[in-house]
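Much of our argument rests on the idea that a fold can be written as discrete symbols. In the encoding step, the backbone of a single protein was reduced to a row of integers, each denoting a local shape. This step matters because it turns folding into a mapping between discrete strings. For completeness, the protein is quoted in full, as a sequence line and a line of structure tokens:
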Amino acid sequence: MDEQVAPSALITSDAVTFGILAAILGLLFWTRSLGGRWAKFYGVVPIILLCYLIPSLLTSFNVITSETNLWQVAKDYFLPAALILLTLSIDMKAVIGLGPKALIMFFTATVGIVIGGPIAVALVGTFSPETVGGEGADAAWRGLATVAGSWIGGGANQTAMLEVYGYNIENYAAMVAVDIVVANIWMAFLLYGAGNPEPIDRWLKADTSAITRLQTKMADYSASIERVSKTEDFMVMVALTFAGVGLSHLVALLVGPAIAALPGMEESVLTSGFFWVVVVATTYGLALSFTRARQLEGAGASKLGTVFIFLLVTIIGTKMDIFSVAERPLLFLVGIIWMLVHTILLFTVAKMIRAPFFFIAVGSKANVGGAASAPVLAAAFHPALAPVGVLLAVLGYALGTYGAILCAEMMRVVVGG
């Protein structure tokens, strides 16, 4: 009996495939901008889910091929560029000016994600070891590292973890589903609370006067950085960004092999060249945030970074088998337990320090939702507070790489990987 050969894709050209992906992104964002029924649709179906799903379906039905060079370009150029653009805009003075309770809740949210992963893996592993097991590139902890990256930072950090830990991308759709479904269930609860925060604040015995002061402060901040972008702004932005991308690869070429040559370090994540690309790009962006380069945020630095992230998302979508989601339903239980740990820790600390629900919600979404949803949630409390979500979300991008690696290594220890 002859072995069956998979049918070839209708479109195999990298350039044509990239054009199709860009067109999909443009169509999605254009329809979302129309408002009305489209706004209701995207309120139910997150746009990032469609950015994964549509390319995945096109690949699954052999319209486009997954065998392209686009992923290599995306991870080598788009990803470090996004990390730089999203971290250079951090205004540390403004973040500190938010007050200690805001930062305490943000870091509590981060800790909740870091420890929640290992706890969830340990609990599910007691009755379903196959769910959190696996060997080599199929090891579940490697895939869950991408969820940690997304829930602490965002799409760029998620992609970074995918590459750093080398998870089998054919199984990646299940991890994306856990990420998006669980995160959006939590988002629904937070939005409900944002519509009526007073009962929660009374239970927390919170002092909400800080929120009123923040509304004035952040409205002034938002107005101060807004300006009309010029060609020179984009040229400087591109120069700084891709100089950083080049520096990241240079350090990776030098440091990775040097560490690999050390006794006992052959299997360490520190030998991964891509690990150093991600770490150096993040650190470079943070360093720029202490210079005048931070003012490029007013010209649209984070917006350009977001473009790179969504290009990454669609390219990853071409490599996903969306039908693998149904093969591991207990992964959703891992995600739910993980999020419960995060939630319980947040409310416990908030009760102790009498932090307003606003700081719980935005601190959480600055981690779990990132720049895509944290400002949306902040604006649900008051439109002038949207920049608070942006500031904390960008801080999440900066911490996402480091926190996700810590979480992943703890999960590796739990499963004995």
About this structure: The two ends are 40 Å apart (CA to CA). The mean pLDDT is 84.
